[in-house]
Design a protein that fits this description.
about 475 residues, mainly alpha, Ribonucleotide Reductase, subunit A, Ferritin, 2 domains, 2 strands, about 0% strand, globular
C-alpha cells in the first residue's frame, strides 16, 4: 500500500477519530464485565521527551563517561596510599566497567554496531577527565570522581528514567536502574570517605575549592548530558601547566611496614615463625599472599589505563579481575584477623608492584598472569587437600574460592595479552623474565654476577613470591 506523500506546506492534519463497528464496543464491555480477575492497573503512559536518535546520543555520552571513569580510577591505583580507598577503588573500577557494558548493549539495540560505540571519542570529556585526574591527593580524586562526576551521572540517570517513554523505552529504564544499584552505595561510601579525610587532617576548604573548580568545568561542556546550558570554563586548568601522567610507584599508608628487597616473607621478617616446609608456614604464607594482592589491584587497574581504547572487552575483563583482586585482598586481611593476627603486624610486600609499575603493560601482564597466577594454580590443589585433611576449614574455604578465580583469570589473561602485544608466547616470556631479572637485581633481591643468566620462570615465581 502506498502511503500519501507528506505536504510540508499544508496545515497540520486533523486528529484521526476512532471508527468502531456496530456492536463491537458494547460486546467488548460485556466480555470485560464477565472477566473475574482484577489485576493491578499498569499506569504507565505513552510519551516521553526523547526520540530514538536523542536517546542514543545521550546513552552514548553516558557510555563514554563510564568507560573513562573505569580508565581514570585504574590510573590512580598505584598512587592511592590508603588501604581502604585502594580496595574500594578496585571495586569501583568494575562498577563503572559494568555500567559501560550495560549502556553499550542498549546502544546496540538502538541501531548502533559495537565497533561504532567503541570508536566514539569526545575531546571535551577527555579534557575534563585529565583535569579530574590531576588531583593532588586521593581525597581530591574522590571529590572529582564521586562527588562531582559520579553524583552528576546518578542525577542524569534518574532524570532520564523520569523523562524517557515509560512504555517504549523500558529497556533503557531497566539499564539505568541496574547501574544505579551500584551507584547508591558507591556514592554513599565516597561521601563518608571524604569526611574521614577531613576528620584526619585534609583541608576542607581545599577540597571545596577543587569541587567547585570541577563542577564549573563540567558545566562548561554541557554537563553530563551535553544538553545543559554551557557556562564559562574555569581558568587556569592544572593540565595546562602539567599534562596528566599516571603514577608508577606503589604507595601504602603509615599503618603498613613494607619491604621490596625480596619476595620471601621470612627473609623480610628477619626471623622464622615456623619450620620452612611445615603446613603452618605454608598456611601463613598463603594468607599473607592474599592480603598482599593489594599489588594486583594496582597491576590490573593500571593495565585498564595503559590499554585504554584498544579493546573494550579486554578493558572489561581487566576491570572484573581488578574487582576479584580487591576481594582477594579483603579475604587475606580478614583471614589474618581470623587467625589471630593484627594484619598490620605482618609486613607488606611491594616487590611485584615496584617492578611492574613502570613496565610496559604486556610484560607486566605476562609476569602476573604467566608466572603469578599460573604459579598459584600449581600449588593450590595440594594446599586445599591438606587443609581439608587437617580440618582447617578457614583455609580450605578461602582457597577454594581463590582457586576458581585464578583459573578464570588465567583464561581471560590469555585473551588480554593478545590485545596487548603481537609477540609470540616464547618471546614474551623471555623478555618478561629478562625485565624482572633486571628489576630484582636493582632491588637487591638477587646479586648481580658477571655471567648472571636470566632467571627461569620458577625462580621468578619464588623470588617475586606470587
Amino acid at each position: 500500500m502506498k502511503l500519501p506523500e507528506e505536504n510540508h506546506g499544508a496545515a497540520a492534519p486533523s486528529p484521526i477519530t476512532p471508527h468502531s463497528l456496530a456492536g463491537q464496543r458494547e460486546a467488548a464491555a460485556e466480555r470485560r464485565a464477565r472477566y473475574p480477575y482484577r489485576f493491578p492497573t499498569d499506569r504507565r503512559q505513552l510519551g516521553g521527551k526523547f526520540t530514538v536518535k536523542e536517546n542514543s546520543r545521550r546513552l552514548l555520552r553516558f557510555f563514554y563517561l563510564e568507560r573513562r571513569l573505569m580508565h581514570a580510577l585504574g590510573s590512580w591505583t598505584l598512587s592511592i596510599p590508603e588501604y581502604e580507598v585502594k580496595l574500594e577503588t578496585g571495586r569501583h573500577i568494575f562498577y563503572h566497567a559494568d555500567a559501560a557494558r550495560f549502556l553499550r548493549e542498549r546502544l546496540t539495540e538502538q541501531e548502533m554496531r559495537p565497533p561504532a560505540v567503541d570508536a566514539h571519542r569526545d575531546a571535551e570529556i577527555d579534557r575534563f577527565i585529565d583535569e579530574m585526574l590531576s588531583a593532588q591527593s586521593a581525597a581530591e580524586l574522590l571529590v572529582g570522581v564521586h562527588q562531582v562526576l559520579g553524583r552528576a551521572l546518578a542525577t542524569a540517570y534518574r532524570h532520564h528514567i523520569d523523562d524517557t517513554d515509560q512504555v517504549t523505552d523500558v529497556p533503557t529504564i531497566r539499564c539505568l536502574r541496574r547501574i544505579l544499584t551500584d551507584y547508591e552505595p558507591m556514592l554513599e561510601w565516597a561521601d563518608a570517605a571524604v569526611e574521614a579525610y577531613v576528620a584526619g587532617g585534609e583541608e576542607e576548604a581545599g577540597l571545596a575549592t577543587w569541587r567547585w573548580h570541577l563542577t564549573r568545568l563540567l558545566a562548561a561542556i554541557g554537563g553530563v548530558t551535553g544538553a545543559d546550558p554551557r557556562g564559562e570554563a574555569p581558568a587556569p586548568l592544572r593540565i595546562d601547566t602539567k599534562p596528566y601522567e599516571r603514577g608508577t610507584v606503589p604507595l601504602r599508608d603509615v599503618r603498613f611496614d613494607t619491604f621490596r628487597h625480596t619476595g620471601d616473607y621470612e627473609k623480610a621478617d628477619g626471623a622464622t615463625r615456623y619450620d620452612k616446609d611445615s603446613y603452618e608456614a605454608l598456611r601463613l604464607r598463603f594468607i599473607r599472599t592474599q592480603r598482599d594482592e593489594v599489588d594486583a589491584i594496582e597491576a590490573f587497574g593500571t593495565f585498564v589505563w595503559d590499554i585504554r581504547f584498544k579493546d573494550f572487552n579486554a578493558e572489561y575483563d581487566l576491570a572484573r579481575i581488578t574487582w576479584d583482586e580487591a576481594r582477594h585482598t579483603e579475604i587475606g586481611h580478614r583471614a589474618m584477623l581470623a587467625s589471630g593476627y593484627d594484619p598490620y603486624e605482618l609486613r607488606n610486600r611491594l616487590t611485584s608492584s615496584t617492578c611492574r609499575g613502570p613496565m610496559e603493560p604486556a610484560y607486566a601482564m605476562a609476569e602476573i598472569n604467566l608466572f603469578g597466577e599460573v604459579g598459584v594454580l600449581k600449588t593450590i590443589n595440594e594446599l586445599i587437600d591438606t587443609a581439608a585433611a587437617r580440618n582447617d576449614e578457614l583455609l580450605r574455604h578461602i582457597s577454594d574460592y581463590i582457586r576458581a578465580d585464578e583459573r578464570t583469570h588465567v583464561r581471560k589473561g590469555t585473551r588480554i595479552i593478545e590485545v596487548m602485544t603481537q609477540l609470540d608466547a616464547k618471546s614474551l616470556e623471555l623478555r618478561t623474565r629478562e625485565l624482572f631479572t633486571e628489576c630484582l637485581v636493582s632491588l637487591g633481591a638477587i646479586k648481580k654476577e658477571i655471567d648472571m643468566q636470566t632467571l627461569s620462570r620458577e625462580e621468578i615465581e619464588h623470588l617475586v613470591g606470587e
